[in-house]
Amino acid sequence: MFDVIIVGAGPAGMTAAIYARRASKSVLVLEAKSYGGQIINTPDIENYPVEAHISGFDFATKLYEQAKGLGAEFKFEKAVGLRDENGVKTVVTTKNEYEAKTVILATGSENRKLGVEGEDALVGRGISYCATCDGAFFRKKTVAVVGGGNTALEDALYLADLAEKVYLIHRRDTFRGEDATVQKLAARENVEFVYNSTVTALHAEKRLNAIDVTNKDGSVRTIEVKGLFVAVGRIPENQNFASLVELDPAGYAVAGEDCRTKTPGVFVAGDNRTKNVRQLVTAAADGAVAATAAIAAIADF
Fold this sequence. Notes:
alpha/beta; FAD/NAD(P)-binding domain; 2 domains; seven-stranded mixed beta sheet; 6 helices
């Protein structure tokens, strides 16, 4: 039986592994794909303390090597279930079952994609899902934001301070986000609303250079842009654990800054929990908080 099983080897999960191992707890990290999570798609991280510039892949590799060097065990298996039997937690994967005194769910969330041909190939080459992460690369350039909620509005407002022009594309004729933010955007001379429209094609050579936007009346407009910021929602990976963890309507695990779920001994850390700021630094913070809480819970096991 492990002291701590961590589901997910992103920044939150691997930070949790470091903290748990430094407390001399046995740790198993389960990861369905490869270590690093979404951050490995970021070509240059500029907003993490100490490291002014580092690629997402290099950051994730350093974190992995640190956790591994401290003695955390990693298995690349997808977790598909979680049971709690008299306080003993059993994590079910596609290959095995593992028991632990505590579990930290750090499964993260996936960006909801547009589903347009060529989208995946252009991530990091013009397409981004995080304006605060990548906006600085498009200073004084023309960009577009897709979405109608608060995230899209806030992304457009953030980019309006950096970019030469910002197109805000929404499939409906009104935005779902706060009207106060809409009014701020409307007052910006370099922001243009594109209503009742969806992005239907991407034009690129080595990098994105234009998009096709189709109005609901069938007309197509080609807009030259250097950056396309997709803000149409995220998909948290929590459904396999819904029997023990309360989920909000969007599928995020309900937990406060203490990272505790409704089930004693089960914690959640990173982008898959309810929170306002989803950034690399807050994922790492969650990992530290969740691991510290798990360590305290082990003492009472």
